[in-house]
Each structure stands twice: as structure tokens, then as C-alpha cells.
Amino acid sequence: MELIFEQSVKGRKGVSFPVDNTSEAAPLPKELLREEKAELPELSELDVVRHFTKLSRLNFSVDTNFYPLGSCTMKYNAKGFEEAAKLFAPFHPMLSMLPEGEKLSQGSLELIFETEKLLAEITGMDAVTLQPMAGAHGEMTGCMLIAAYHKAKENKKKYVIVPDSSHGTNPASAAMVGYEIITIPTAAYGDMDLDAFKATLNNEVAAIMMTCPNTLGLFNPYVKEICDLAHSVDALVYYDGANLNAIMGKVRPGDIGFDVIHLNLHKTFGTPHGSGGPGSGPVGVKESLVKFFPSPRVKKNGDSSFSIAKEDKSSIGSVSNFFGNFGVIVKAYAYILQLGREGLIEASEQAVLNANYIMSRLKEYYDLPYNQICMHECVFSASRQMESGIHAIDIAKYLIDRKIHPPTVYFPLIVKEAIMIEPTETESKETMDNFIEIMIEAAKLAESDPDILRQAPLKTPVSRLDETKAAREQNVCCVL
Amino acid sequence: MSNYNPNTPSQQAEMLATIGVSSIEELFKVIPQELKAKSFDIPKGMSEFEMLDKINSLASANSKDITFFIGGSFYDHYIPAAVDHLANRSEFYTAYTPYQPECSQGTLQALYEYQTAICRLTGMEVSNASLYDGATALAEAALMAIRITGRNRLILDDCVNPIYKRVLETYLANHDVELITLEPLNFSLNKEAAIKELNNNSAAIIVQTPNFFGSIDNLKDIAAKAHENGALLINSVYPVSLGLLATPAEMGVDIVVGDGQSLGNPLSFGGPAFGFIATSKKHIRNIPGRVVGETVDKEGRRGFVLTLQAREQHIKRHKATSNICSNQSLCALRGLIFLSLIGKEGFVEMARQNRNRAEYAKSLLSRVKGVSIEDSVPTFNEFVLKLPKSASEVTAALLKKGIAAGVPLGSYYKGMDNYLLVTVTEKRTKKEIELLAEELGRTLV
Lengths: 480, 445
Fold this sequence. Notes:
The complex is a heterodimer.
Chain A: H1 45-56, H2 79-86, H3 106-123, E1 127-129, H4 135-152, E2 159-163, H5 169-176, E3 180-184, H6 194-200, E4 205-211, H7 223-232, E5 236-241, H8 253-256, E6 260-263, H9 265-268, E7 283-285, H10 287-290, E8 298-300, E9 306-308, H11 326-362, E10 378-381, H12 383-386, H13 392-401, E11 408-409, E12 418-421, H14 429-448, H15 450-455, H16 467-473
Parallel strand pairs in A: 2-3, 2-4, 4-5, 5-6
Antiparallel strand pairs in A: 1-7, 6-7, 8-9, 10-12, 11-12
Helix pairs in contact in A: 2-11, 3-11, 4-5, 11-14
Chain B: H1 9-19, H2 24-27, H3 48-60, E1 67-68, H4 81-87, H5 90-93, H6 105-122, E2 126-127, H7 134-149, E3 153-157, H8 162-172, E4 178-182, H9 191-197, E5 202-209, H10 220-228, E6 232-237, H11 248-251, E7 255-259, E8 275-279, E9 291-296, E10 302-307, H12 313-316, H13 329-366, E11 372-373, E12 382-386, H14 391-399, E13 403-404, E14 407-408, E15 419-423, H15 430-444
């Protein structure tokens, strides 16, 4: 498709501005002005509408395709939540920070306060901040809180431990806060090797970051022991909430002994992923860490009004402009209100049921490196298909031709040719059965006619793309 | 209660039988009994109707009838209706990160076009596919400069948005970085002081245009001085101003960042919007976050992919250029749609109107008895008023009349209790500006 810039017609106009009836200002000094106008396209509104409508139709999305992308929790994003967020579009964040401005922003402040309270209860933590903008941002904020905790106690800490099955953001986030990373291998039972962990743990360990259930979709039965061991050297335990969708109402990280947790509202709490963002990555902590929270914080007053709290002198500062991705927070709040206690529990139960159903039906056709009941996702390996020269990526591309968004492939890194499937609770048995049939078909084709898989996809606007060329030429901007 | 789980009890029973367990509870058996949730005190669910009613009542508890003369990185700009309609196509908003390019060309091409738009606005050569917001973009730029130069001294103009400064300090708190802050001089960058602070360990000078006080600086000489000393110039910009103002590239800037809220994203109590970052091609490998690149498919047709992923956390883990994963794609898309709708001439007109209306407000407000203005500094659509009494008191009084007259600077700068930062966008009518002047006059009597 032509780029929007390539469709430009000199002199064509789109949206107009109101007539400016103030008097013309004296011009700025010439050296402060740009030499040429920015080469934005010149198009009619219809040109623009058609272009982006056409572009949208080149995408797979939850609303158009089954999207079992492991670790990403691509559940249905209900339309009522979108409507809820729109109600807050006109409110200026700065207004609440003006003298007397809090009184004019009571609804927004209350929504923040209530959402924090609900998320704290869901996770078993003492308090939650909504300021982080995404999961990785939450991780970084969590690591900053951990650093502040150790600094305040004058603990000499240097390392953060992560299992080798962790999301790449865990070590990257800890490194953003200046920690060195120690990676622990996964044991045959599919979780972080407990003995290796014990052997590694020392007084210089600031924290251990865990995903539970982990990225293999397995719940670590030793998680309590790990928390206790960590605490014995005053290391804090961090819970990566990417997989919270498996355990709502069943387990609360705070009850187990986790000290810091982040959530991905765009995974567990029904807010859409927006082609890669915006997300929201709230952080929850135990009481001893609350004073380090980023500001601004909302508090409830004795008269039930809400205001912005005076900043604690121990605060780490701020991690974003204002109150985080507020519009996303509204949608998550709407989700929790609507589903309620029973609905959240049922969401997790159905998510786990669906994942186990797919796992049971496919394990005859694909290798299952960790063959046990899984939680909300299951991880296969295409190693059997490798014998006919077929890789996980070929199966993924074949699924695209069959109008299904591929599962996550090649992650977690510890599984060779990994295929990570997370159906979520909102998918019907019919949709999953169709997916299962196509996966079985792919497994059969790997033996009978592997070329079909290797050439896929053929029914898309473009076939497989040359990624090496992209990386070499670095054409990331259309030059005039 | 609507929970969106489609499977009927009989389907669930069938699935359980296939798995070979007798109940859903059995699937959770792996969780040790003593770890089971001690509490889950969440209210009972409700229908969509009741949910919307409840959230509507919260929205109604905010005041809707306020005229905004406040900015501070979030601005009350017009958003054409088509932006909402297009960005609300669920093929965009319910998709994930475009990891599978063949079924994500819509997102990928849009992000490539977005990157192009940012480059054309700023004059830079490369842009990423968005960051969280303007403040975190500035922090990422600082870390990027440290990586590029291998130095750890940063020189920060205190005319940079204090909220951004705070986020920058928070990001740097656990790094071995020397952060030097330059006192403003006449609401502008103190260039002499900045040059004095440059040494052979300086990674970057960090400035903002227009700065927090609205002033526009000519950065050419400071860029040259920074480069002479092997340092970079980082510039946070207000994108709307680029309809008129010299591009950061023309000024010699190395890394440009900013907040894209003003390009088609609603105020939404502070988010979501997006941050942008752009630089020159030689620094592309040090840019944080996702980047979309053009390539071809097997048949030679043009297509787009996420590229240079070897910088990113899912490959490089702790050695990545940043930990960022999810960004603000949909908001960046809104920015692109907005820019496409207003177009080349509309973008200039928007900037012109912002400045014009602000200049009109400046002239009216400066004639209010007791009020004065730092006239010597050129400004864009924000400027500082000196009031004869506390700006906080004045702001509170005007709020009662439905006017958010500005941001009192005393909350951010020592000794500036009587100063008020006023913002005027293209949405502020002549009448509203005149009313502000009138009411300000009344308040000061």
C-alpha cells in the first residue's frame, strides 16, 4: 500500500481551524523560525479515513481473529470499558494540582483511590501505585523501590536474581536500576532450580524476581520456601504479574510472601493492547515499602473527599508525567466492577481450563517438554517437526494463512522451538477446536508436505519479509 | 454480571473429560493448600449498564466547565472527529505488538509513517515507534547520551519542565551520574553558565524549547559548544511549536524528545498519550524501544517489520538499550492520524493560531493593573505573568469563576510565588481571553 505521504496532493486540505479574530502578532525573529514547512501530507478527510481504514484491515486483532499469544493474555476487550474511559477524556491532569483544583477533580481522584484499593485486595498487597505506564515500567519502578528500601537500611546489595525462564524485561528493568543480574537455570520439574538458587543466594542479593505461574505456565510449588529463603538474607521478592490471569481469587502473591508486585492491566484486566500499547503497570508493595512510592499519591480525607497527599520525604520521585495511563486505569476499574468477585475467579478458572484443554488435545502431535497440568498457558516444542526440517516459525506462518494469530514462538528461551499458547477465558470451545484442528493439520503437513509450511503465509498482503535487509538498510523514515 | 466466558456447563464438562480431570478445582491442585488466598474481598459484579452508571457518576464529580489556560506538557487542543473514529477501529486497538509482520502490516506501516512524521517535524533522521510520555522520553534520552559518549555528567537547564526534571532525577538516582542544574537567567537558558559547566566528562546538555516558562532560545551556539566538547545536546520540544519554530535539527540538536499528547490525544487526566524520541542515523543503535523498518517480501513487495531488535530486552535481556517493551502505539497512531488530517498547511496554521492567540492574551493581560510581563523574551503559546500578589491565591480565586488561569510557578521554583504561567491554545476564543483579562483585573482590585 502507498504511504500516506505518497498520496499527498499539493493544495488539498483536510481539517480546518476556526477563524482567528485576534490581531496578528508581530513575527518572531527569523533565526528562530523553521526554514521550510514540515512535509506532512496534503489530503482530504476522506483520503485519510480511507487510508487508515485500509491499513486497519491488514491487521489481525482479537476482534477479528483468535489470538492465542502466550504471555500476552489477549482476552476480549469489552466495549463498555471503552465507553467508560471516554467519559474522562476532557479532564486536565494539571487542574488537580492547582490550589483548590482537587475539588474540581474529585471523580478522577476517587477512581484512582478505589482502583488502587481493589488491586491491593486482589494481590494481597498493602498498597498500590498506578503511576507506571506499562509492565516493564512497573518492574523498573518496583526495582527502584527495592533499591530505596535497601538504601534506607544501609544494606549493601548488588545483585538481582532471575530464573532463566523469566521475561526479558525482568533483567533489563533491574539493570536500569543499576543491579547486576544472576540467572538461575530451570530444573527438570519446570521451575527455577531450588538447589541452584540456595547455592547462589547471599547477603548481596537485593531481590529475586519471579513469575508465578512462570512462563512455562507452571505454578512453582516451592514458591513459599523461596520467599522465606530470600527474606533470611533481607532480599526482597518481586512478583511479575504478567501471568496473574491464572490465579485470581486462588492465590494472592502478598499472602505467599512477595514484597513487590507489578500488574499488567492490559493483560489481566481486560484493557486492549492498542497494537503494542498503551498498557498500564501498577505496582503493589507491602507496608514497609509504601513510603518510597512515587508521587503524586491520592488520599482519602476524613470527610470522604479526596486529595493529593503531601509527598513522603522517602519517595523515589516520579516515574511519569502525572497519574499514569489514566484512561487505561478507567477501563480496568470498569472491568473489576463489572466482573466482580465471582467473575474474576471464574475468569481465572476458565483461562486455566481452556489452556489445559488445548494442551491435552495437542500433546499427541507436539512435544510437551514439561508434561503436567498447566495454568493459563502451555508451552509445546516443535522439536518433533524439526525432524522434517520444520521450525516453530513455519507452523506460526501457516496459522496466519488459516486466519489465526500465531502463539508466541521461541519464548521462553529455555524451550527449543517453543510454541507458547494462551487461549484466555473468553474464547469458545468451537474457536479452540478449530485452532486445534489446524495445529494437527500443520503437524501432519510437517511430515507429508513440509513445503506448504515453509512457504506460508501465502494469503497475506505480504509474504515472509526480509528482516536482514531491514536491519542492514535501517530505512526507518521515508526520506523526501 | 457479565464475564465474557462463553463455554456452557456442558462444554466445560466435555473439556474436563478430555483433560481427564473431574473438576476445575483439580486443575488448581498443584497450588499447595497453605498458599490459597486468605481473602478476596471484591464487591459482587454488575451489569454493563450499572457499571457505566457508576463510572458516569464519578466523571460527573469532576468539574466539566473550566476554561483551560493551563499547560505544563498537557494541552487543551482540538481533536478532529476522524481521529477518534479511526483509532477506535478495533483492528488497531485490539491487536498486540506487531511481532508477526505478515498479519500486522496495518500497525507496522502506520508506525513507519509515524516515525516519518516525527522526523519531518523535528528534521531528524530516525525516530522510534514511541515511548511512554515526554518525561520518560527525556530520561531515556539522558541514558542514551551516557551510553553514546561513555561519560556521566549531565548539564540540565532548570527551565526544563520541573515534572520532567523530577522523572529524570528518579531515573538517574541509582546510576553513577553527576547532574548539574543551571539556574534560569531571565526565564531562559544561562548559556554562559552552561558552557562553563562543559568538561571532558560531559555527556549532554539538556534543554527544552519552548522552555517551561514559554521562552524560545536559539540553541545554535550552545549546540556548537557542546559538540566542541564531545557532548550531545538533548532538546525536549513541544511538537505544536514546530509548525513555526526552527527544527531541532536546524539548531544542531542530537537527541529530540517530547510529549505527543497535543497531537490528537485527549487530556484524559494525564494519559495515555505518547513520548517521542528522534536522533541522527549514527545513533540508531542506541535508541531505546521499538523501531519499524522498511523491507521487501519474497516477491519483492514493500513491507514493514520491527527492526534492530538486537537492542531490545527480549533478545539482549539485561544488556538492552532500555527495558521498555509495551510503548504507546495507539496514541502514536492518533498522533499520525491527527497530523495527516490537519496536513502540511494546517500544521503551520495551528502553530500560528497558538502563538497569535497567546500574543493577544499577553497584550491584554499585561495591561491589567499591577500585572507585568518579561517582554524581552520571545515566546510561543505560553508566557509568565508577574502578579502583584500570590499567584496561588489568584489562581484559586479565578478557579471559582470557572477559569484555570495558569500554573502558579511558586509550586515549582523558589522565589516565584507571584508568577503565573499562562497557556493559550487555538481553542481559546477571543472572548475567553478577554474574560480572563477582565476577571484577573477584578481579582487584583
